[in-house]
Amino acid sequence: MLSVPTTCPYCACGCGFFLQARDGDLVGVAPGESHPVAGGRLCARGWNAHEAPVWGKRVQQPMVRRDGELREESWERALQYVASRLKGLIQAGKLVGVLGSARATNEENYLAGRLARAGLQTNNIDFSHHAACRPLLAGVEDVTGEPFRAARLADIETSDVIVLVEGDLAKTHPRAAASVLTALGKGARLIVVGCVPTQMARLAARFVQTLPGGEGNAINGLLAAVLRGGAEEGRPQAISSQEHDALRRELADVEVTEETQGAAGWIAAAKQAVFLMGPTAGRAEQLRGAAAAFAMLAAIGGAPRRQGSGLLLLLGRSNVRGAGEMGVAPDRLPGYARIDDAAGRERLQRVWGKAIPHEPGLDAAGMLESASGLIVLADDPAAVLPQGRRARAAMERLEFLVVLDAFFTPAVKAAHAVLPVASLAETEGTLTNMEGRVQRVRPASAPPGLALEGWKALARLCARFDAGREWSSAADVLNEIAEAAPRYSSVVRQAPADGWGSTLLEWPELASVAWRPNRGGVLTSPERPYVLAWDGVSDWGSDPLVAHSPTLSRDTQSERKLFPSGLVEMNSQDADALGVRAGWRVRLSSAHGEAVTPIRLRKELPRGVVLAPYGFRDWLADVLGEDGATAVKVERV
Ligand code: SF4
After folding, report:
1. 205: exposed, middle or buried (C-beta count within 10 Å: 0-12, 13-18, 19+)?
2. Residue of minimum CA distance from atom 2 in ligand 1
3. Cβ(58) – ligand 1 distance below 6 Å
4. Among 16, 38, 54, which residue terminates a domain?
C-alpha cells in the first residue's frame, strides 16, 4: 500500500495526513502523529478526504460546447479554441477575467495570476472565497499594516485567555476548536463573542451575545473596558500613552457591562492571550470595522510582543491565504503587495518580463456582472458568492466561460470550454494554512483520462497568451513564486526536515498600530423590527469536495430534502408572538425585496433575530441583498 504524506484540502487549519492508495486507487486516510498541525488528529472531513476523488464524477477530457452540447476535444484543439475566443473578446474591447480558487494550490493560483496580468493584460483576477474574508483582512491591515501576520495554532493550547469571534468554530475549524478544548483543559478562560450559543459559546467563561452585525460594538466594549483598566505596569504596549488616552476618550461613550468588564480584566491580566476571528454576518464595512477593533484589542490587550500572544484570522478554506498571497486579487500582486506598490510591480515585471496593467480590476462579483469572458479555476462561484442564484444566472449570461476543474460542478455544466485538471490527491504543490504554514501536497494516484495537473494546464494556457515559460515541475513554479513574493523564499530554502515539508512564514515584530473606532450594527425600525442574517458565511454542502463525498454530504442532502423551499430559523417566543409554528411559512420583507419561506425554531437564538443557513441563500438573496444582515418585517402567511 502506498502511503503519501500530504495536506488536507478542506479547511484552513491545514492538517497533514497520509493518503493511502492500493494499485493506483485511493483507499483511505491515516493521520500523521508527527505532523506539526494535526499531531495525529483529524476531523470527519480529513478522515474522508479520499472520498471526493473516488466518488465524484470526474472531468477526464477537454470539452468544447458545440451546438449547445459539451463535446470532447484534444487538448491542442481545446486550448486553441479557448485562446482564439478570449483574444476575440479582448480585441472587441470586452472585459475578460480570471477566478483563482481557495481550493487550488499556490502554484496554480500564481499561474492564474500570471495568466490574467501578463497574458490577458487585466487585473480582473480574484477568487470567490475572497468575498467573505476580504473585510477581515482589510480591517486587520488598517490597524497593523499587514493582514497576514498571525498567531500559531499551537499558541492556542498554551494561552490562558482565548477571545473568539465566531460563526461556529467546532464546525468550521475543528482542529482550532480542539486546541481551544486543550487550553480549557489546562485552565484557560474562553471569551466568545457571537449571536448563536454554539458549542464553543457553551464552554465559554463569558459569552458576549450580540445581534448579527453587532460584533463590532461588542468588541468596542471589550476594548473600552481594557483601555479604562489602564496599562499594567511593566507590560510592553503597542501604542504610546498619548494614543492610549486618545482612544480611551473616543470610546468614552461605549457602554461597558459588568460581564464585559470582567472579560476585559482577564484579557488585561493574561500572560498569553490568543484572539481568533472568523467571518460573521453583516455588511462589509461593519465586518472591516469589527476586524479592525479586534486587531486593536489583540494589539493592546494581548500585547503581541509577549511570546505566543496574537491574532489568528479563521479563513474559510484550505488555501484562502495562499490565493491572497499569490496575488489572486484585483488590487494585489504576489506577496499581497498593493497594485500601486512600485517596488512590487517592478519586481513582478522583471520576473515575468512583461508590463502589467496599473488600474485595479474587478472582484469576483464584479466580473460575473460585467465580464464577457471568464476563466474559472477549480471553483463554482455561484456556490460560494452571496448572490447565489443571481450569480448562477450571471455565469449563464457570459459570452465565453472556461472552467478548469476535476469534478463536474454546476460551473462545468455552464461552461463553453472545459479543461480537466487533477484533484488535490493527484497533484504536487503547496497550500498555505491560516497561520502561514506552507505545506506540501503530493500525489497518491494519477489523474484520470486526459486530466493534467492544474499547474501544467495553466502553464499551457499562459503559453497561448505569450505569458509563460517552460516550468519543469510544481517545485519550479514555487521557485519563481519565491522571486515574485520574497517571503516565500524561506519555503524554497528550507529542506523539509520531517517528511511533511512544512515551513512557517516569518514576520518582523509588529512595530506600531493605528485605529479609529467604527460604530455599526443593523438598524431596525418599528416597521422592520427583526434582523435577518446569514448563519455563517460558508456553504460546505455545495463544495465539490463535500458534495461528492457520500459520508460528508449526508447532512446537507437530508436538510435539502426536508426543506425544498428554503428555511429560516427563529426563537420560539418570536414565533409565538407572530402566531406561527415550526414548519409554517412567513413572509420576510426588507428594503431590498421579499420572500416567503418556512421556519424552524431554535430556542437559543436571541429574540428579534431570523437566521438563514447560507446553503439556502437562493431563497433569501433578494431579501438580504449583499448586506449579510438587514432589518426585516416578518409576517405570518
Ligand atoms: S480540521 Fe480542517 S484541515 Fe484538519 S482535518 Fe479537519 S478539515 Fe482537514
Report:
1. middle
2. 11
3. no
4. 54
